[in-house]
Each structure stands twice: as structure tokens, then as C-alpha cells.
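Internal tracking record. Fields below are filled automatically when a chain is submitted to the structure queue. Please do not edit lines marked as system-generated. If the sequence contains nonstandard residues, flag them in the REMARKS field before resubmitting.
Queue: standard
Priority: normal
Entity type: single polypeptide chain
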Amino acid sequence: MSATASPMTGETPEAPALPAAGSSFYTAMRLLPKERREAMYAVYAFCRVVDDVADDGGPREVRAAELDRWRADIDALYAGHPPARVKPLEEPMRRFDLKREDFQAVIDGMAMDAEEDIVAPSEAKLDLYCDRVASAVGRLSVRIFGMPEADGIRLAWHQGRALQLTNILRDIDEDATRGRLYLPMEKFHKIGLMNPTPQSALAHPRLGEVCAAVAAEAQEHYRQTWAIIERSPRRATKAARLMAAAYRLYLDAVVRRGWAAPRERVKPGKFPLLLVALRHGIL
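SYSTEM-GENERATED OUTPUT FOLLOWS
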């Protein structure tokens, strides 16, 4: 947990956790003016610590109780008496009109992972999960970026889903080791696998059809993301541009690699990522 608050003790961090230097998120956030960058770091620290609760916070009942405490802390923040561990969110909340329901949606998304190992959810459940763990973060982010309201919400909707579906495709083997499978049930039914488990799904000879269909949905969300970005003020979309371009490299890489086992974990080369940073971060 390093610099973040402990989800079990609620100890106050000395400073908001920073994303890993060199990561796409870190690079994107460095493009922001100081007050917006610090607001994003505070939101990042919150998201990281509740994610740690969901994944590594102990028995399920302990994780559920801790997430309930985070819900109560967010309510207290908006009631005007924030506990110490959400105090860093107070200024961003006021300055950028961050919405209570978006913070609560993030917690609800983490609770979906905490309460059970998600295995082949319905498409509706998967979409809800993506909205909570990704698009809700996007809704907080676009307000900090200074996006116009309507297009900001649309951008968060599409970009959050694009990034989360990319993560799901990139991490299918890692998720399976945790007993999780985020690919949707309906797509397995189309290949004749009626009750998929992580193991049976990843070993299925037609897994590639499922993954290709999810990749096509992600690609459409990227297309919609760029349509919004290109009609929006550039100053408010620099970070979103870099994130969309960098994550698209990951999607392209897993599609090129294919889905046959053994699947090596892919990462775009440093040169393509540098080009993305130069094009969308500096120009």
C-alpha cells in the first residue's frame, strides 16, 4: 500500500499516492496544471485504496464492512465533516464540483469484486461493472479536466468502457488465477459453452471468437471517444487523448498476439509509447 491509507486501519497518508512513474496515467496527469493534477492524484489515491480493499482486504465480510466505511466517509465528506482519510478530496470536490454519486459508484464497483469472484457476467452486469469501476472515475476526471458537461459525460461513458474492456482482454489469464472471468456469458453461449468457468473458457478452442467480439466493442468505444475528443477544447482533453492513444496500443497488441495458448502478456514497445506521449502530450 506504500503511501496510501491502510484500508484496514484508516490511517491517514502523508501524501496522496502517486501512479507509477512512466505509466500512461502518470504521464497523462503530468500534463495537467498543478491544481488539476493534484486533484487527480487525490482521486487516484481514493480509487487505489478502495481497489486494494476489494482485491486484498481479507475475508469477504471484512472487505464488505470496510467498503461500507468508505461509503460512510464519502457521505461525511459531502455533509461537511470529512474524516482524515478523505480530507484530500475536500478541495477537489468543491473546486471541480465532483459528484458524490460518482465516488459511491466507484465503491459499488469495487464491492462487485469483493462480494464474489465475477465469472462470465451477463452483458448487462459487465456494462454496469465497467460503468462503476471505469466510467465513474471518468466522470470525476472530466470535471477536473474542465470538459464541457454534456460531452464530458459522454466521453467518460465511452472511454471508461474502452479502457476497461482493454484491461479485461489484456488480463484474462491473470484474472483466471484469481478465479475471475469478465468476458460476458452471452458470447460464450454463442460458441456453445453454456456454463463457463475461468479454466474451461480459457481452454476453449473458440475463445478467440469471444475475445474478438469484445475487442470489436472496445474499438467502437475508442472510435466514439475520439469523435468526442476531436470536437472538444484541446486544453481540456490532453490527458484523455494520451490515455486513449496509449491504451489503444494495448488493445492492438493483444489483438495482434491472438488468443491461442500460451498467451504471453503483452506490452507496447517504448518507442510507440514515446510517440504517443510526444504527439498527444506535447503537440
